């Protein structure tokens, strides 16, 4: 899809990845609808762009049913006559912790934001999004490789992948594509000091938000059904599908280090 003059909805717009994606989409000529929880942060982001008058903002917590419905109403009726061409479900969260140490409410929120919200936002737009149209769901490498300390995040992002795959097939021939992008560890505020130190200790690779943003644009422009970012993570994804015991043995060697950093994180929370 050519993004010139297309209207793109971006959730999680004020996060690290979201801001980088917004800047790159604007460079491609897109008109943006920036969505996040806090109005002032959205206004600051819009004013930082080169064409702020071309973009709209809408403050909404996409895990809240009423706010989500208000957002859908705004997207359908509150903009000009061009309608919505692309939706990027980017809002997400994770918590590096053992499941036994999590509160039920934190688990529910993580699944609500990472999995339920993209599904329900997509459902709410299917009858009126422009055709041709694109829905891009942002997943994670951890959706394909179960990793200690991220059990519910892995579960949610795995669900996002299968949801995207199934709905893309369900909508085949309708003019709507449902695409999926899985970044590996990215340098954002979601990964606190303990996580960054652990990744350095284990030799885990990470990407800048600009790298992820470039892949977001590539997936949309080339209409790639699914794309995994990073080497050797892409290889591990395939190995985990075919011979998961190999990956389990590799992670088992990291187990002591992982638990050390989980314990350090708990002490400082």
From TrEMBL:
KW Glycosyltransferase (keyword) present: no
Domain of life, per lineage: Bacteria
Keywords, ordered alphabetically: Oxidoreductase
InterPro entries linked: KR_dom, NAD(P)-bd_dom_sf, SDR_fam
Ranges of residues in domain Ketoreductase: 6-188
GO cellular component, as recorded: membrane
Record-linked Gene3D superfamilies: NAD(P)-binding Rossmann-like Domain
Pfam families: adh_short
GO molecular function (one): oxidoreductase activity
Family: Belongs to the short-chain dehydrogenases/reductases (SDR) family.
Protein name: SDR family oxidoreductase
Organism: Vibrio eleionomae
